[in-house]
Fold each of these.
Amino acid sequence: MSPIDGLLLCANLVLHKSAKQSSFCACTMKRVKEIDVKLQQRVNLFFCFKLGWTHMQARRALEMVFGQETLHVTKTRKWYRQFTAGRTTLVDLDRAH
């Protein structure tokens, strides 16, 4: 593992662990937490994209950190296509109504 790989995984692990430690019980807060995990993954996908990684390399790194909560491979591919097309916003426009 390169130093960049280690740095990325450490940063993601800290973000993910702190998100998991929140003790919200309400359903609405659970939904916010799920959105936060997805947003964290999109931020990290964009970071990996800027490093020149393929979407599969980025997804493998996400799997190491997020486990079963990792975005599906079709989602990572979709985001990578959009980054390649010039997209820089990380808000899911399909859901931001």
Amino acid sequence: MASVPDAWLVDGFDKASERFASAGSSADDAFRALFECVAWAGTINERLRERGNSSPELQGLRFVRNRVIHGHLHGPDVAATLKAVSAHLQKTNVG
């Protein structure tokens, strides 16, 4: 079975990131773009894990993705969790 090319996954993440950056003050647009970012990141992380080559950053984004998809994070909680993951990665000299 053929899989989606890696470049398509990265391009999807990049375009969702651009939508997030340009969402302005619209919380709805920002949340949808952020949700899409973490969904793409989760897929990229799974692809790399299959190859034994993941990163702590992608694992952190996958954690956020799982929390959002399974209903444990809502709206502003997503941004707060992403900040916490980022702070942890910086503290451990990974990010």
Amino acid sequence: MSEDESLFGESDVLIGNPEEFISLDDLDQEEVQAAKRMALEVGITDEQILDAVAFDFVATGDESFLEGAVEIFVPTDDEPIDDGPILFDFFDLGANTFFDEVLVTDSTF
């Protein structure tokens, strides 16, 4: 296939950098405050996370941003509350399966 050919056909859609950036200040402030109240009601208290969740929810109208933030940032009863930096346990994210199955069993590494 030559450089002039495409597997995706003709498209008028150009993907690149956005022409304009928006912030919380550009969104409807009543909607922003309502989204922040919803996040507070489910246990999200960190101001930066509240802003991020409110932005995502108001900009998209997709409530899954709130649901995902709860899963990540709201501790359950069996988890201690930690006010330190947000860190992810690499092995808790499935990396141990990768290492066990690929690195340990594959002798090419």
